[in-house]
Amino acid sequence: MKTFRPWLMILFWCFVSFLTLFPIYWLFVVSVKPAVELFSTPDVILTKFYWKNYIDVLNDRTLRGYMMNSLIISSGNAILCTLLGFLTCYALSRFDLPGKESIFFWTITNRMAPPAVFLLPMFLLLTQVYKIGDFSLADSRIGMILVYCTFNLPFAIWTLRPTVDGIPKELDEAAYVDGASPWKVITEVVFPLARPGLAVTLILTWVFAWNEYLLAATLTNFNARTLTTGLSEYVTTTGTEWGIMAAISVFTLIPALIVFSLVQRHIVTGLTFGAVKG
After folding, report:
1. pLDDT tens readout for residues 75-125
2. Which of 44, 118, 157, 187 is the residue whose CA sits 20 to 30 A from 197?
3. Both 98 and 155 in a single domain?
4. Domains in the chain, number
5. In this structure, is residue 183 part of a structural domain?
């Protein structure tokens, strides 16, 4: 029998961590270098910091608006998808609906096609169908939240289904015996037990909307333009402002890291909840 060598595993994971974290570090290196130094390969070890790129980003009113749009759209999409997905999974799990497995399957079919397939239908819906007088969902935060929900809600249902199925129905029945209403059972019995799965769904749907580029670039002009689409404004025929783009990219990482750190303790539990049944 071969002797296990823990140092090999340690070296392996150190190497994997280096491959994962070095691009983020290099992004930061580029963001604190002036444009002149970027024409040659920057030094790996930082000796001085050029903060003007960050100052320019923070002083840009348009970019601040893009960041606010990204925060509102991503958060609104994540909260709406998580709540609707939870209620849908509760109905699929607790009620004997005819053809519910078929409903579950056809719900997630839109994730099988690339988002580009839906660009033209979405554009026509937002600009021509969902329009009342001068009001239109095109180039609006509400419109983008609903667009992202179209893609994220099936994913939320698929993610939450094992979590809700893993909560014993006997807990619902015991609460009903004690006189609880259906809404009280959902909010005070099932919902707290489903928090790990809800946390995973919340962060994954939030990250999808936060990082998404194609739909935002196509369906927005200015009012609902997001931070990821703002990056393209620094790629022009006269050159690319790599330092500014790197600084913007660092700013896009910060909210994602904050959200992840707040719910990280629930992620492993949520991903494995209901996976093993004894």
Report:
1. 999 999 999 999 988 988 888 877 777 777 777 777 777 878 888 888 888
2. 118
3. yes
4. 2
5. yes
Alpha carbon distance 224, 74 (integer Å): 12
21 vs 19: CA distance, rounded Å? 6
User: Among all chains, which residue has been given the structure tokens 């946390």?
Assistant: 199
Name 136's Cβ contacts closer than 8 Å, sequence gap at least 6: 126, 127, 130, 143
> Does 278 map to a domain?
no
If asked whether residues 183 and 113 sit together in one domain, one would say yes
Give the long-range contacts of residues 183-187, CB within 8 A, separation 24 or more: 186/87, 186/90
Indicate the pLDDT class of residue 1, thresholds 50, 70 and 90: very low
72 shares a domain with 16: no
Of 201, 202, 195, 204, which is closest to residue 167 (Cα–Cα)?
195
Q: Which two tokens stand for residue 12?
A: 């392996």
Write down the pTM of the prediction.
0.81
Q: Could you tell me if 38 and 139 lie in one domain?
A: no
Start-to-end CA distance of the chain, whole Å, equals 32
Is residue 108 domain-shared with residue 242, that is, in the same domain?
yes
Q: Are residues 165 and 261 in the same domain?
A: yes
